[in-house]
Design a protein that fits this description.
There is one protein chain. By secondary structure, the chain is mainly beta. Helices cover 9% and strands 25% of the residues. A five-stranded antiparallel sheet has the order 4-3-2-1-5, covered by helices on one side. A hairpin with a 4-residue loop joins strand 2 and strand 3. The chain is elongated and about 80 Å long. The protein starts with 10 loop residues before the first strand and ends in a 44-residue tail after the last strand.
Length: 104
């Protein structure tokens, strides 16, 4: 079976069950950068990619429902940034232009 062309954003599963995403492909160097769900980044040669695919060590996978594992998103005890508070809509909106005479 021919190995799929790795594309940035595609998810795969190693034979150990670890999910990883293709995050960069360098055609000139023949390398593929992958990032595991836990955030670990690894570089793989194109030849290694094809060999592992042929041996069944890599398979196509669905992206995880909770993608925040690899991007190190903090939840919970964050402080709001200046001008923002949690739970309130602080979006500024323009008022109505009714009553404005543009021809004065």
């Amino acid at each position: 079976m021919v190995a799929p062309q790795p594309r940035i954003g595609d998810w795969y599963r190693s034979n150990g069950g670890e999910l990883f995403e293709v995050v960069a492909v360098d055609e000139d160097d023949g390398t593929i950068d992958i990032q595991y769900f836990d955030g670990t980044v690894e570089e793989m040669d194109r030849e290694d990619w094809e060999a592992q695919w042929e041996e069944g060590l890599i398979e196509v996978a669905e992206p995880p429902e909770d993608w925040s594992g690899s991007v190190d998103v903090e939840t919970g005890d964050e402080e709001p940034r200046v001008g923002e508070s949690f739970g309130e809509d602080t979006t500024q909106r323009a008022g109505s232009l009714d009553g404005l005479d543009l021809f004065e």
